[in-house]
Amino acid sequence: MPDPGVERMRISLHERRLRGRLPAALGALLSALPVICAAAEFETPPVLDALDLAGGIPLVGENYTIAGAVPTDGFMATFTISSPFGTFTASGPGMLAVRVDDIRALAALEEVRNDEQFQTAAAETARSTAGGLRTLATHPKETLEGVPEGVGRFFNRTSRSVRTGLQKLDDVRHGNAPGAAGAPASQLPGGSDAPAAAAPSGSLPGAIARAGGGVAANILGYDDQRRRLAKELAVDPYTTNPVLAAALDDVSWAAFAGGLGFNIVTSMIPGGALISATSTMTDWVWDTPPGDLRVEIEKALLAAGASREETDRLLRSALYPLSAQAVLASSLRALDGVAGRAGVLPLALSAGSEGQARFVVQSLEMLKRYHLEREVLVEIVVDGIAFGRTGSGAVVILAPVDYLSWTERLDAFLSRFDGDAATSHNLVLAGRVSDQARAALERRGWTVEEESVLGPIEYPVR
C-alpha cells in the first residue's frame, strides 16, 4: 500500500509544475486569440451604394437607371440597370460601363430601325436573302471563286471556322457544352451569372444552323458589315448581350442583303451615338474577320503549350466570346517565356458561367500587365485561380474583384500559403477591400494594393 505522505508529496510537486507552466501556456493562448477570433468572426458581404462603386458613371442617364443598392458576394458586386430595352445586370464597374454603352448603342440602332429608308431595305432583305444564299448552296464553286482573297488565307480561315462549327454541331447533337477540365469552377469568383453554355433551344436544324457560325454569310461579306457597325458604335461585335446582338444583326443584315449600304446606315445614326473607337479600344477584334481571328487565337494557344483538344474546346466555348478569346490569347502571347502559362487553359475551361470566364480573362490580363510594367514573372501557378511568382520568390495575386470581404472562402484560400517559402505575399486588387479583410490579410503577412491601375479590363480592350 502506498505511503500517504509520499503520495501527498507527489501530488504537491505535480501541482507546482502545472502552476509553473500555466503562465506560459496562457500567454501562448492569448497571443493566438486574435488569429482564432479573426478566422471565426467572418463578415457578411455588404450591400453597397452604387454611387461609390460606379466609377463616375451617372446613376441616371439617357435611356437607363442604375439601382442604388449593389449586393456583393465577398468578391464581386452586381449592378442592376433598367432601360426601355430591358433590365440588365453587370458584374463590376467595368461591365457596368459596357452595359451602359450597350444601351447607348441600342438607342441609336432603334432610331435607325425606325427610319423609313431602313424599313424599305429591311423589307427587300426578306425577298433577296433566300435567293443569294440558295446560289451559294447550289453553286458553291462559282460563288467562292468570286471571293477576293488569297486561296491559302481563305482556306485557313474557312477550315478553322468549319472545324469549330462541326465541333459545336456535335455539342448540339449530344446536348453538351465544353465542360470542366481541371480546377473546380466553384473556386472561381463570378459564379452568380446564369450559365451561357446551354444548348440552343428550338429545332435541331435551327440549332445546327446557329452552331455552324454563319459561314456562308461571312463569306459573302455580311460579317464585315456587322463588325464595322459595332466599331462605329464602340461595342463588342461578339457581345454576349442578346438584345444588342439581335439589333446588330437586324441593322447589319438590312445594310448587307437589302442593298442599303454601310455609309447610308451610319448616316442614320444620331451623331452623339458615334464614338471614335480607335482612340479608346484596340482595332484587332473589329478589323479582323472572325475566321482569321480564330486562326491567330489557335496559333497563340498552341504556342503557349495548350493541347489541341484544349484549344478546340476554348474556341467553341459559349462562355468565351471571340473577343474574350482574343484577349486571353494576347495575354498568353505577352507572357512568352513564363513557366506554367499553359496551365491557364484547364482553369479557363473549368468556368461554369460567363462571370467566371471573364474573371479568368481579366486575371490573366492583369498578370500580363504586371509582368510588362512592374516586375518580371518567372512562373504562372494555377491553384483555384492563376497567380504569379517573381524571380525574387514573391507570390503576386492579381485579382479583378470589386469588393473583398473577410469570408470563410477567402480564409480557406489564404491558408494554402501559410508557411510557404515565398519571400513576400502581395495582393493587387482592381477594387476595394473591407477593413476587416485588410486587417486579416496583414496579420498573415500580406501586402494589399487597392484600386490598382493594372486592371481590370473589358473586351474589346479599352
Write the layout of secondary structure elements.
Layout: H1 4-40, E1 47-49, H2 50-53, E2 60-61, E3 64-66, E4 69-71, E5 78-83, E6 86-91, H3 92-113, H4 116-138, H5 140-145, H6 151-174, H7 204-211, H8 215-220, H9 222-233, H10 242-257, H11 262-268, H12 284-287, H13 290-303, H14 308-315, H15 322-334, H16 344-349, H17 354-373, E7 377-383, E8 385-390, E9 395-399, E10 403-404, H18 408-414, E11 425-429, E12 432-433, H19 435-443, E13 446-449
Parallel strand pairs: 9-11, 10-12, 11-13
Antiparallel strand pairs: 1-4, 2-3, 3-5, 5-6, 7-8, 8-9
Key features?
about 450 residues; alpha/beta; 5-stranded mixed β-sheet; 4-stranded antiparallel β-sheet; 13 strands
Helix content: 40-55%
Largest sheet: 5 strands, mixed
Number of strands: 13
The strands making up the biggest β-sheet line up spatially as: 7-8-9-11-13
Overall pLDDT, averaged? Answer: 76
How large, in whole angstroms, is the Cα Rg?
28 Å
Residue runs with pLDDT of under 50 for 5 or more positions: 22-39, 129-137, 139-160, 179-186, 193-215, 276-281
What structural category arises from helix and sheet content? alpha/beta
The outline comes out as globular
State the end-to-end distance: 89 Å
Count of separate DSSP helical elements: 19
Strand proportion, as a percent range, falls in 5-15%
